[in-house]
Every structure is written in structure tokens, then in C-alpha cells.
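As promised in the previous annual report, we have extended the structural survey to additional targets. Below is the entry for ACY2 Aspartoacylase.
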Amino acid sequence: GVEVGPQPQGVARADILDKMRKIVKHGLDFVQLFNEGKEFPPCTIEVFKIMEKVDYPRNKNDEIIAIIHPKLQDQDWQPLNNGDPLFLTLDGEVIPYQGDCTVYPTFINEAAYYEKKQAFVKTEKIKLTARHLRCSVS
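The corresponding C-alpha cell record, generated without further manual editing, is:
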């Protein structure tokens, strides 16, 4: 499956549809070349590995007491360092990120995740290495 976004539910965006078409085309091109016996050289790629889901700050009644800080909003996949603004309380208090390493938040303030108690997902950037790949054609 391919999920391309973000986009609001029920909204068809031409730019997102174009990205989805390109991704599917590249995938199909790869399958065709692989089936034809093309050899793909070893490669290394940076990816984002999910570390944990982070909830909004809540009070004892389980009510959200802070929102995503404006400097974090729309910053998916961007580095978040110790001390960077994370949440903003309704009283205007900034709650900073407190972590021992740089993380890369994603799915920041997605409406579909409010009920799942998820303000964003922390990811870490890692490198994956693949050996060469070749299919022998009969």
C-alpha cells in the first residue's frame, strides 16, 4: 500500500495525487527492471524509525491542557532538539522538548489522532544499507 499525505479527509488534492502516481510508477518500473534481470547496486538510504507516540499534556481528568507550539506546527520530519518549544498551554506557558537526543516528529497535530491520544510520533533518523539485488531470468 501507498499512503501519501498529509491531506484532510475527503479532500482530493492534485499535488498529492501527482505524488502518489509518481511513487506507484517508480515502484512498477522497479518491478519490471527487476523481473528483466537488471542488477541494482548496493545502496544506503536514510529512513525514519518510529520510537514512540507522544500524547498531549493532560490534567487529572484526562483533558488536554496544551496545544502544539506554533514553532513545531507543520514541521514534520524536521529535527527537534532538547529545549525546543513543544507545547503551549492555554495560559501561554511553553513546554519544551526534554530529550537526550535529536528526534524527528511526524504526524504532528493530526486531527485523526486526537482520539488516539497522539500529539505526534517521535522518530529517529537511521541509515539502512542494502546489498546488490538481482533476479536471475530464466
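The chain has a mean pLDDT of 91. The beta strands are 43-54, 66-68, 85-89, 94-96, 120-130. These points will be discussed at the next consortium meeting with the crystallography subgroup.
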